[in-house]
Design goal:
Largest sheet: 6 strands, mixed
InterPro entries: AIPR_C (IPR018891)
Helix content: 40-55%
Keywords: Coiled coil
Pfam families: AIPR (PF10592)
Coiled coil: 514-541
Domain Abortive phage infection protein C-terminal: 256-531
Strand order of the largest sheet: 6-10-9-11-8-7
Radius of gyration: 24 Å
Strand content: 5-15%
Number of strands: 13
């Protein structure tokens, strides 16, 4: 790759996601998916779930599907999300090329692949594409629960510089018109993501951004233990818009990763905020009617009335921010909001700020889970277990907790990951492990993350799943990916009878013996291959009529395999 900055980002990404040894073009597919989907849609997007590139990929490298900004990868997830509320659906398709030049034929192939995804099919497709088509069909079968027709997004990522070409733009316009004729979508968007945009997106996903805002009226708060500096003031809403905008002028969703509440769309409170903005007379009262926003930053510098914020998050005010951003065309110069600005690095202190500023109703139960004492002990326990750097696992209770350390994505597990691994390895339900973590936390609230549990099984399950996923990464053995939870269950079982979760002494002995085997790469691969062969043999025994593509979520098949 010729671009030195993009090349350096790709190198960092390769190391962080353990993609060494993969071809540059293959890594670029994952990098593009990361830079697009983690920024524009959800940080919970698992890259191996969305990258479909390979033979017979119909010109598509990645496909992401989102319901209310939640990434869905199974029909079960679709049913869970759509059963609770009206849904907004987004379909995202990505093509990535390491070349610096745009090719009209390749763009045409990409558009044709998307057309065949939703319409009549001519090109043969691989299993990953076929799986996504089935999932798409299931989403559309729930169309009665949609607020509006889905939005369709096409991204063409490449390492050149987009200058605009009439022939290329005509091809894109024709493709968008053809896709709109399907009458399936409320809008069709096509975006060229060139080297500059990829660099900006990668920086924004990793929150390596700084913004400046002007606050004309503010006051410093008295010294507070653990906080370097803090201010309270009145922030003009037009300044808030510049704070919230990403490099392309859209809402920078990653700024709300620390906020425990997702955007709730239409509800009484949000409707009141919108009604206030719709009234020119009432807009001036917004600062008095609204609780405002709280911003936590790693760095705050003040020059006059200009505040420079570095590595910042909006920990309270998600609803207000979304409504104001969506209605920015209505804002007057006098419209303002209360704002708190806090410079702090201590994670426990940030957690307390999050908890204290999010006491409102409608906060999801799972949002506060990581703030509990059990999870604090888990974090300390994971860190205390002595291991080689390459083998160590750390628990990230808050977003980017280990961003300034030597730990990479291969060392870090999140609440989502830990929930999936525990449900599959310790509770032995690999089908449920596919589901959204919020659903699992509620379903297993009496059997998972429970006071009195040994901490060892949480570490062991995370380690098993992490090592299984490493064997599926990139183009190494992608066929394993769908079965990773089942394989993890079978690998855990291979270490013998599982002690009671409350028996810390037996759990410690069990886990320590198992971890020695896991850290022996050859021995671990042997166990994984044995599990693979058992699954393959069981599917073959079912005969040709058996649906092998969906075997990983066939409860009857898996129950028979595990009995």
């Amino acid at each position: 790759m010729d671009d030195p900055i993009l090349s350096s980002y790709l190198k960092e990404f390769t190391k962080n996601f353990d993609l060494e040894g993969q071809k540059e073009a293959d890594v670029f597919e994952f990098f593009s998916a990361y830079s697009v989907l983690h920024r524009d849609f959800s940080e919970h997007t698992n890259l191996a779930d969305v990258v479909v590139a390979g033979g017979l990929d119909t010109g598509i490298d990645a496909i992401g599907m989102y319901l209310n900004d939640i990434p869905v990868v199974s029909t079960m997830q679709v049913d869970e999300v759509s059963a609770k509320q009206k849904i907004d659906a987004d379909f995202c398709f990505i093509q990535s090329k390491t070349s610096r030049n745009l090719n009209s034929a390749e763009i045409g192939n990409f558009v044709q692949g998307v057309k065949e995804f939703f319409g009549r099919r001519y090109m043969p497709a691989n299993d990953s594409i076929a799986d996504k088509r089935e999932l798409s069909d299931h989403i559309f079968s729930n169309s009665v629960k949609m607020r509006a027709k889905p939005r369709l997004h096409l991204y063409y990522c490449y390492s050149g510089s987009f200058k605009g070409d009439p022939a290329i733009e005509a091809r894109v316009a024709a493709g968008k018109a053809e896709l709109m004729e399907f009458n399936l979508f409320s809008e069709v968007n096509f975006l060229f993501v060139d080297a500059d945009k990829l660099q900006a997106r990668y920086q924004e996903v990793n929150l390596r951004v700084e913004r400046e805002v002007q606050i004309n009226e503010y006051a410093a708060l008295p010294p507070i233990n653990g906080i370097r500096q803090a201010y309270i003031g009145v922030l003009p809403c037009k300044e808030l818009i510049s704070l919230l905008s990403n490099s392309e002028g859209k809402l920078h969703k990653a700024l709300f990763n620390e906020n425990v509440r997702d955007f709730l769309s239409s509800n009484p409170v949000n409707n009141e905020i919108k009604a206030t903005l719709l009234s020119v007379d009432n807009q001036s009262r917004l600062a008095a009617l609204n609780n405002g926003i709280t911003i936590v930053a790693k760095r705050i510098q003040i020059v006059g009335k200009r505040f420079a914020l570095g590595d910042f998050q909006i920990v309270n005010g998600c609803q207000t921010s979304h409504i104001v951003f969506a209605n920015q065309h209505l804002l007057t110069e006098d419209t303002s909001l209360p704002v708190k600005l806090i410079e702090a690095e201590d994670r426990d202190l940030v957690n307390e700020i999050v908890r204290a500023t999010n006491r409102q109703t409608e906060v999801k139960d799972e949002a506060f889970v990581v703030l509990g004492e059990f999870h604090k002990r888990l974090e300390r326990f994971f860190m205390s277990v002595d291991d080689l750097p390459a083998n160590k696992i750390v628990y990230e209770r808050r977003k980017r907790q280990y961003s300034d350390t030597a730990y990479t994505a291969q060392n870090v597990v999140t609440l989502t990951f830990l929930t999936n691994s525990f449900v599959s390895c310790c509770l032995e339900n690999p089908v449920d492990a596919i589901d959204y973590y919020g659903v699992l936390l509620k379903k297993y609230e009496k059997t998972m993350f429970v006071e009195g549990h040994s901490l060892w099984p949480y570490l062991l399950s995370a380690k098993i799943l992490k090592e299984v996923e490493k064997l599926c990464v990139g183009k190494a053995r992608p066929s394993l990916w769908k079965f990773r939870f089942l394989i993890s269950t079978m690998v855990r079982r291979s270490f013998g009878d599982f002690p009671k979760l409350t028996n810390d002494r037996d759990q410690a002995a069990y886990a320590k013996a198992a971890l020695k085997q896991i850290n022996n790469k050859k021995e671990f691969e042997k166990r994984v291959r044995k599990a693979e062969k058992s699954i393959a043999a069981a599917m073959t025994e079912k005969g040709r009529a058996f649906d092998k593509r969906n075997a990983h979520q066939d409860r009857k098949f898996i129950a028979g395999l595990l009995q």
